[in-house]
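Long-time lurker. I teach an intro course on protein structure, and each term I like to show students one example going from raw sequence to a predicted 3D structure in token notation. This year I'd like something fresh instead of my usual example. Would anyone be willing to generate the tokens for the chain below so I can use it in lecture? Attribution to the forum is fine with me.
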Amino acid sequence: MADEKKLLIIATAGPEDAEKATIPFVMGTAAQASGINVKIGFQGKAVMLAKKSCLPHVFASNFPPLAELVKMFTEAGGEILLCGPCVNSRKIPAEEFIEGAKIVNAPTFVNEVMISTHSLVY
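-- Reply from a regular --
Happy to contribute to a lecture. Here you go:
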């Protein structure tokens, strides 16, 4: 559909900044509730958030737990993209990531920016 709204959110904060790591999913789920197609791309330290062992331990004051937001986001059809070089530099095996997280390369991120109608960076 030519007039479909698509939002790409780039997350760069890892578990050390729980609030900044949580906000992309607050915005993403809000956008989904408005009928917008949303993808969230994790770059840099943010790739740590997609680890099964990390996600359940990220809590930001006055926000739902990050694990709950991620579950809502993916159940509503949201996609999670992980920066391949960022994953590789941290030597994280693919099986350590949450279900549905997809490791991609730079051209994929560039393409997602180009086809999205809007983007946000946190």
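Some talking points for your students: Strands lie at 6-11, 37-42, 79-83, 101-104, 118-121. Residues 18-33 form the longest helix (16 residues).
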